[in-house]
Write a sequence for this structure.
């Protein structure tokens, strides 16, 4: 059974297009989880093909992760074998975005908690947990490398990720939360 072309990302997909495509994909996967396995619309191979088409470009991967990690449903809480294999198909892009999503969501838990925005803090904590879970499931050397570089940059206040920390204006408490989450994710 071939995958509908509407679920495949083109090389020129926009960030917004990737968000829409991921929303459609997640809706189909969620609907499948409510059916019996014989009535599923998508096989694991089709899920893998759809996700791989998204994560092979930076726009596609960014749109995929912003949607997948923040989705209100539970698909991302139990990543399918097809999704996992697809993420492994683009280690450089996936690792960079996963480690950054872990860092950003960890900092945002602190920010939202400070501002008594418990609903937003819970949303950031959900992204944090899903990002950590994916990093641990994937066990990609690229995640280990990027996480180690990020931790070293936090220690030395210099390096490739220092600009990332400065751009987002993370303070010491947020950096401590990032350090803790990234360390935990890579063991």
């Amino acid at each position: 059974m071939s995958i509908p072309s509407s679920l495949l990302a083109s090389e020129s997909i926009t960030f917004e297009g990737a968000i829409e495509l991921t929303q459609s994909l997640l809706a189909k996967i969620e609907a499948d989880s409510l059916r019996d396995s014989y009535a599923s619309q998508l096989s694991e191979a089709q899920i893998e093909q759809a996700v791989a088409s998204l994560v092979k470009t930076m726009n596609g991967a960014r749109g995929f992760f912003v949607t997948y990690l923040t989705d209100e449903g539970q698909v991302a809480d139990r990543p399918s074998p097809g999704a996992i294999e697809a993420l492994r198909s683009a280690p450089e892009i996936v690792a960079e975005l996963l480690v950054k999503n872990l860092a950003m969501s960890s900092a945002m838990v602190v920010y939202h908690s400070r501002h008594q925005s418990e609903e937003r803090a819970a949303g950031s904590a959900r992204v944090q947990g899903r990002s950590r879970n994916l990093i641990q499931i994937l066990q990609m050397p690229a995640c280990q490398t990027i996480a180690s570089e990020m931790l070293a940059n936090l220690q030395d206040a210099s390096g490739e990720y220092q600009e990332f920390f400065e751009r987002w204006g993370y303070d010491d408490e947020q950096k401590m939360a990032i350090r803790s989450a990234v360390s935990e994710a890579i063991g």
